[in-house]
Amino acid sequence: MLSKIATSDGHGEKSSYFDGWKAYEDDPYHATENHEGVIQMGLAENQLCFDLVQDWIKNNPQASICSAEGLYEFHDIAIFQDYRGLPEFRNAVANFMGRVRGNRVTFDPDRIVMSGGATGAHETVVFCLADPGDALLVPTPYYPGFDRDLRWRTGVQLVPVPCDSSNDFKITRQALEAAYEKAKEDNIRIKGLLITNPSNPLGTFLDRETLTSLVSFINEKNIHLICDEIYSATVFAGQPDFVSISEIIEEDNVVCNKDLIHVVYSLSKDMGFPGFRVGIIYSYNDAVVSCARKMSSFGLVSSQTQHLIAAMLSDNEFVDKFIAESAKRLANRHKHFTWRLEQVGISCLKSNAGLFLWMGLHPLLKEQTFEAEMSLWRVIINEVKLNVSPGSSFHCPNPGWFRVCFANMDDLTMDIALSRIKAFMLKNKESATTTTTTRPKKKLCWQASNLRLSFSSRRIDDIMMSPCMSPHSPLVQSPLVRARN
Ligand SMILES: Cc1ncc(COP(=O)(O)O)c(C=O)c1O
In this structure, are residues 469 and 476 in contact, taking their beta carbons and an 8 Å threshold? Predict the structure, then answer.
């Protein structure tokens, strides 16, 4: 009775990444009402600078068409529907993208195409570049949502390029060539390479040399390069400047067919506005701009949001202050978090950006397998009551890595999360010491645990598919929805 899309399994969210959200949803931590609940550390949200945004809104009431000061524009904005978007919105976003990149590069507002978040932007780009059955190379570990966003409705495949811990997950020419050649042997047509810079989940950004080598790789193969730069303003204060692909292709010594280059952007991470669904496709290819713009009718940003964002992001004083302050607060959060983890013997991949840490828990694995990783993950959710995301859900080739989000909570919640980790590590240490002195076989405390977490994947899928649940923002749990209930 229904289509293949409706009845098949292409949504790609039967994964531990989303199971963790379900665990949180069933038992969400609340400072006063559910102190023992699960703390959500699986959500890459940037909630550290809302005070700055709120102050700006208070000082600029005319920016909203729903305020006494802005009401005079209500009519014009409410009826606006041109899919190119408000010119002032495109100008402001182009301005913001340039400022985030230290004004080392400028963006042409006429190339800004709107979409429903980066989610919609990715899908639109893929619709423009590839046909069903074609494939994109994607270095691992990568954001689990890509398996849905890029594949589900387009019929395009993703071919992982295994990058591993032996060289801190660097993307090498060798790994790219091997994945490309293997796909060719399997008769898979590679149409492009997708990178996320800065990386989710690694929290690192690519250096000039790597970017230059990626540009020469895709030019040699004559395939596209899609650069997801949605974390570009999350680079921590005090770190080297973020390098955008847009800078690299302007360099004199770089030979590049710009028609192959496409940037995906959004305000979900840099500004912390995932609910506004402001996604951007910035392509250097005129035909892609034109096709994506036509397609954007399916996922426009509402004119009310465009209007507000246009005012906010064209205020350069605010933008510069926001970018600097956000980078500082993220740096402080990251420093505190990694330091507290180090105190209890946990190390993380050295990172310089992002809203998360890539935490290495291999020493705690019973054996170096993904089964052991899942067992440990279940204990972290069930007993330590933290929703962190296992590396396997990011296609990480090495077991034992976990992504821990640190910018979606207040200081108090962060401290509680860190003390839970500390208690868990101490318990482990004690139990390891006791067992080695009393028994020959060494067993960590959690390894004897009763592993209780078991979700019917059918139920998860129902939830993920339900209109009130977005994989990026579990609305069921959001304070807003809770307040309404
Ligand atoms: C790398 C990456 N790309 C795209 C997205 C989707 O972002 P948006 O909320 O703008 O759709 C995410 C969300 O977590 C992400 O991490």
Answer: yes
Distance CA 415, CA 12 (A): 33
Measured between alpha carbons, how far is 229 from 248 in angstroms, rounded to an integer?
A: 14
Q: Which residue has the higher pLDDT, 53 or 14?
A: 53
Cβ atoms of residues 246 and 262 within 8 Å:
no
* Model pTM score: 0.89
119 Cα nearest atom in ligand 1: 11
CB proximity list for 158: less than 8 A, separation 6 or greater: 135, 136, 138, 146, 147, 150, 151, 194
CB-based burial label for 451 (10 Å; 0-12, 13-18, 19+): middle
Residue 379 has pLDDT above 80, yes or no: yes
The type of residue at 391 is G
* pLDDT value of residue 10: 78
Peptide bond into 201 cis (omega under 30): yes
State yes or no: is 228 an active-site residue. Answer: yes
CB of 118 within 6 A of ligand 1: the answer is: yes
Residues 6+ apart with CB under 8 A from 438: none
DSSP code string of 107-133: --GGGEEEEEHHHHHHHHHHHHH--TT
- Position 80 pLDDT exceeds 60: yes
How far apart are alpha carbons 234 and 239 in whole angstroms?
Answer: 11
Model confidence over 174-226: pLDDT tens digits?
999 999 999 999 999 999 999 999 999 999 999 999 999 999 999 999 999 99
Stretch 251-256: mean pLDDT = 93
Active site residue 230: yes
Contacts of 252 (CB under 8 A, 6+ apart): none
Q: Indicate if 410 belongs to the active site.
A: no
44 lines ligand 1 (CB under 6 A): yes
More confident residue, 428 or 291: 291
Q: How far is CA 416 from the centre of its chain?
A: 24
Distance 472 CA to ligand 1 centre (A): 7
Per-residue confidence (pLDDT) for residue 479, from 0 to 100: 33
Ligand 1: does its nearest atom lie under 6 Å from the Cβ of 46?
no
DSSP, res 233 = G
Q: Which domains does the chain have, with CATH numbers?
A: 4-49+327-484 (3.90.1150.10), 52-318 (3.40.640.10)
Ligand 1 centre to CA of 118 (Å) is 5
